[in-house]
Amino acid sequence: MTGRPDAVHLSPAWPDRAAWGTAPLLRAWQQTAMDQYAATSPRDFLTVATPGAGKTTFALSVAAELLGRRIIDRITVVAPTEHLKTQWAEAAARAGIPLDPTYSAGSGKTSQDYVGIAVTYAGVAVNPLAMRIRTERFKTLVILDEIHHAGDAMSWGEGIREAFQPATRRLALTGTPFRSDINPIPFVTYAPGDDGIPRSAADFTYGYAHALADHVVRPVLFMAYSGEMTWRTRAGDEVAARLGEPLTKDMHAQALRTALDPAGSWIPAVLAAADKRLSEVRRHMPDAGGLVIASDQDSARAYAALLRKISGEAPVVVLSDEKGASKKIGQFAESEKRWMVAVRMVSEGVDVPRLAVGVWATTTGTQLYFAQAVGRFVRARSRGETASVFLPSVPHLLGYASEMEVERDHVLGRKVTNEDDIFAAENELLAAAQAGESASSELEMSFEALGSTASFDRVLYDGGEFGHSGEVHAGSEEEMDFLGIPGLLEPDQVRELLHSRTSERAKKQKAAREPDTVAELTTHEQLAVLRRELNGLVAAWHHRTGQAHGITHAALRKECGGPAAAVASAEQLHARINRVREWAIKKTS
Predict the structure, then answer these.
(1) pTM recorded for the entire structure
(2) Using CB atoms within 10 A as the burial measure, which of 5, 100, 339, 367 is most buried?
(3) What are the backbone angles phi and psi of residue 230, rounded to the nearest 5°?
(4) Facing residues of 172 across strands?
């Protein structure tokens, strides 16, 4: 079943909403899913619900119902991480269902005080036979949290299938069922779509669009920032490009890494903008917090140092391999601290409801990870709360942001309809290789960031784009038009306000174009305009000839003289612009 239930069983807003994992009453979608589950009594049931909708409460309600009717007498919860094991045990305890989160396959029995156990997918894969024996001994309900993780490795999927094949009931949960691979997820039904390709079939779906209409989740404003990036390749060439313009995959990766370099100007400017946004949100949500998602430990510590200077308060730094990582997250959730900087600690279910502002500062670029990260900010506590996520203007990230409301399934791959199609497997491998987000290891090792600048690009909201197309400098009053949007608005109010801010900008631009009101550009602005024009012409030349951007820039420097575009004078930039145009005329003639 897919759709939005019409009945209202419980308000999604405080104080009428029950605490996470303890609800004696259910939200409308949860009750509808429960009714469907009770009516069909399936052995396997897959629920797809957007992050923050309340999958845990639904699952524990099913467990309590099955325990009460003696259909099962034991519960096994399988979660992606150690942190989530503990979180499940705490939620279950509040619902009167004691689970042992310290159980391991080698330990055998648990205390009689427990009704079940909480384990990880990796833990099951270590000794699936021991888990199978336990599953066979009792009438067991297996709750598979974020079931798509069972496809992370072949051994995980095989282990889950072997361990829980004898289970009396299996309840699979996920907020992001799509994956980039074609490994089938255990205990998930696949049905051919209109194109003949097998896709996962959920028993109940509650998407982001429905949850937003029900005020169960927050609307998300995606604040996109572009800017001029300069870096040096392994050949010694200095490349200048604008973040977000048409580039090759490797150049996109290098431009993004240049933007995220703590020594540059882009990330400090974006962190400062995010901190201003957090201050605005805290006017209406006094305990609102922010999260910076970093790529690695060194970057995380550098971002934390920048935030300390910007906000005057030391952020909480959470690293994935630290022993006390889960404890730090819990303490941050209960505090009123402004910022947390984390590396690989934004997986599904990490519950910090007060997170309202995020900064995407990682080179990880899969849609699955993006959805998981954004899911940390959408959990609503009261009506009118909004979330803001700051992004680099990179095409694939902007695409993910604009498709937030699209419901997706896990696709197994291309159907081979012709036995003579001997290249089918190779084509799949080629497509997978071309879909990779990161640059080659050789390019990664040889890359050197030289400098960056930041400019406000646009706001993405509800499938639309609003803003200044990269024409506004970070820290300007025009940027504050969007950073200063109130933190407590209904979705339709957000849309109206964005429309009004954009139209006001258009009126100002029109007035500025009137004959007697044209202000002379500053040197900085003039150089930025010329660099954008040059980069646009170089990009057009690339699309016309296939010649790499760096090679074209190097050829222009050789013919016209002067340093890299990022530090060239206006006269030198004009000369290069004219030379590219001469090339285009010659090639056309």
Answers:
(1) 0.70
(2) 339
(3) -130, 130
(4) 46, 144
